[in-house]
UniProtKB/TrEMBL annotation:
It is an enzyme of class 5 (isomerase). One of its GO terms (molecular function) is UDP-glucuronate 4-epimerase activity. Pfam families: Epimerase. Its EC number is 5.1.3.6. The lineage of its organism: Bacteria, Pseudomonadati, Spirochaetota, Spirochaetia, Spirochaetales. Keywords: Isomerase, NAD. This is UDP-glucuronate 4-epimerase. Residues 5-265 form the NAD-dependent epimerase/dehydratase domain.
Length: 341
């Protein structure tokens, strides 16, 4: 069994990944600063599922042992707090570091640029430096399909040029890839970037469109539909994403390629209007729609070429949009105590 450091452990993907790994018998140290970009109640609820009490998780720079899983511990910390981060690396011999912590959101980056520089650039540099000094065998980190910007070639391939991002968020994610390449080249440790494509599912992020739509539909408020619903996203269910991350973690123990980037998506873009229809069916209520033009920083279509990840890790997504949204809706209605009228 291995020992993992997972940053962003109270986040959507980090929570699901932590749960999967500890259920497989691995030791996981989860790190998160629990910022207020979205409702922190949801973040505390996620880590409560992992046996971490809210009053314990609120304490800064104090390692807390799970009351549910003996191989899981949690610490609230900013990645930029390099000295305290180093203390954690001193305490454990990590076999793999998975960096999912970041300031997320395309539109939010337009109004809050400095938070992206601190979290996504300075914070990531802290992780790189710690991995370098402690000779971590493998660093896996979150990138994003946003790096493809206005690329008009579909599906997006890892070999496509990604030099023209259209949001600061995307620019920071591309910078992470370049920083990782530099560290792999200079210091000889393995880094793998994962370009996530519109991840959704239970315990998801409230700032994502499907989540906001669900809340508005249940509260009988209108939803804002950009570009008249004529936008396509490669919606990827959370369980498929976790399968992919675990595959990457296991596969790269067997090869010597120091730097790698993979798309991790559903390889089946769906129209925004279809998402809304499926969501209406799953929630049992119709949406009131307000149609608006395309927003700054948005792209018309995302579509993942997953040939490389499928080839190298024998990974394929399996969850249809209908199945995934139905699973999300069931959790959503239960978690927020909504009653179908």
């Amino acid at each position: 069994m291995s020992t993992y450091l997972i940053t962003g452990a109270a986040g959507f993907i980090g929570f699901h990944l932590s749960k999967r790994l500890i259920e497989q018998g691995h030791t996981v140290i989860g790190l998160d600063n629990i910022n207020d970009y979205y409702d922190i109640t949801l973040k505390y609820a996620r880590i409560a599922q992992l046996g971490i009490k809210k009053d314990e998780a609120e304490k800064y720079n104090q390692l807390v042992k799970s009351t549910k899983y003996h191989t899981f511990s949690f610490i609230r910390l900013n990645l930029e707090d390099y000295n305290n981060l180093i203390d954690i690396f001193n305490q454990y011999n990590f076999d793999c570091v998975i960096n999912l912590a970041a300031q997320a959101g395309v539109r939010y980056s337009i109004d809050h640029p400095f938070s992206y520089v601190q979290s996504n650039l300075v914070g990531f540099l802290s992780i790189l430096e710690a991995c370098r000094h402690f000779k971590i065998p493998h660093l896996i980190y979150a990138s994003s399909s946003s790096v493809y910007g206005m690329n008009s070639k579909y599906p997006f391939s890892e070999d496509d040029p990604v030099d023209h991002p259209v949001s600061l968020y995307a620019a920071t994610k591309r910078a992470n890839e370049l920083m990782a390449h530099t560290y792999s080249h200079l210091y000889g440790f393995r880094t793998t970037g994962l370009r996530f494509f519109t991840v959704y599912g239970p315990w998801g992020r409230p700032d994502m469109a499907y989540f906001k739509f669900a809340r508005s539909i249940m509260e009988e408020k209108p939803i804002e539909v950009y570009n008249n619903g004529d936008m396509y996203r490669d919606f990827t269910y959370i369980d498929d994403i976790i399968d992919g991350i675990v595959c990457v973690s296991n596969k790269n123990k067997e090869n010597n390629e120091l730097f790698k980037i993979y798309n991790i998506g559903n390889n089946n873009p769906e129209k925004l209007s279809k998402l809304i229809t499926v969501l209406e069916e799953s929630l049992g209520k119709k949406a009131q729609k307000i149609y608006l033009p395309m927003q700054p920083g948005d792209v018309y279509r995302t579509a993942a070429d997953i040939t490389a990840l499928s080839r190298d890790c024998n990974w394929q997504p399996h969850t249809s949009l209908k199945t995934g949204i139905k699973s999300f809706a069931k959790w959503f209605l239960s978690f927020y105590n909504y009653v179908n009228l």
